[in-house]
Write the structure tokens for this entry.
Amino acid sequence: MSDTRIVIAKQAARLLVNGDYVNLGIGIPTLITNHLPKGVEITLHTENGMLGYGPYPHEGEQDADLINAGKETITELPGCSYFGTEQSFAMVRGGHVDVTVLGAMEVSADGDLANWMIPGKKVKGMGGAMDMVAGAKKVIVAMEHATKDGKPKILPKCSLPLTGKGVVSAVVTELATFTLGQGGLTLTALHPDTTVDAVRKVTGADFKVAKDLASYER
Amino acid sequence: MNKAINSAADAVEHIQDGATIMMGGFGVCGIPENLVAALHARGTKDLTLISNNVGLDDFGIGTLLKKGQVRKMILSYGGECKVFEDMTLTRQIEVEWTPQGTLAERIRAAGAGVGGFFTPTGYGTLVAEGKETRLIDGRWMVFEGPLRADFAFVKAWKGDVLGNLEYRKTARNINQVMATAADFVIAEVEQLVDIGGLHPDHIHTPGIYVDAVLRGAKYVKPIEKLTVRKAAAHV
């Protein structure tokens, strides 16, 4: 299996639709733009106040006034726009952003998401994540299937403080893709190097298997 | 009225211990760096700061934390600043976590004279604890009140002596809304232009909101994460 992060990004990219306005979280989600399927053009939203940002600048062309939510230097694409934080989040909460793709520490079978705090240990804060998951039309979690110690991250209930309750639409890992809905978790796509049984062993929650189970592209 | 002031030291001279101050910026992009440095030099204490972030250990709000000037932070994100993380874990400062969109909207409400709002953000999480909730159009929402301050420090690109401001690119961020919600708003700008030097259609913050304008003596404008393009295009 190739680099798991790229496998995840490629598969998450397949869930995007031509014309989508998309907010990408820090980490794996930022790799998605390199793996968009042919014919899918998206506009990127960054919470600090911009639509339509482009790739990293060429060396020497960086601008301290032009960064993304990860504080990385970026560039303008033709047709981009700038706005303040209040409008940036009005467009998120108002349901104008089609998709947000973000990482998670834990996801529950009923769509709860935890990714902002480990009590007593990690105190970075939620930033814009709580608004993003409450407001975007579709919330895709792109993450490694298990923790570094091999413990499942997809669970019946989250143990960490929540970022959002019942907000997750889909989960994409290097092994499998699930959708979430009224009936809980449904496995919709599987990496060709694994099996449903193997995925069950590293998934903390029960799931159904879709009749038209798809395969990840190699 | 001419709102220009001569120095950052003059600008912060009347800020007393215990004041509540809003500070604009995202990470260290678009932060009022001259005003923060002057407040650091003055040593004003027991401050409550309202900000999206806390800067870095050695730049921006991080320097005020290190010097023990801050009693409480109201913010959404404190990563990349070790002094903040340490002081939070050891409870040397009080922290009120506020989701970024809720933070901006609470400030907007205060500036617009609105007594709060219901938002879906944070429903069912720690930030909703103790707050009124209501089912509105089929969604559970949380009540959030307005957020004001005694002072606001905002950073703009250009300004005139009437207090009209124009921001640049993503350095606008939360500065624009903060300029509306404090009793005394101090704007620092890179360029102080003549009256009429800003195109009226390009003014983001009309001068009515601003009490004092300072041309910053020096701008470092650090880049927190310099990322440049490799051979293959990459975002």
In short: The domain at 8-116+145-215 of chain B is CATH 3.40.1080.10 (Glutaconate Coenzyme A-transferase).
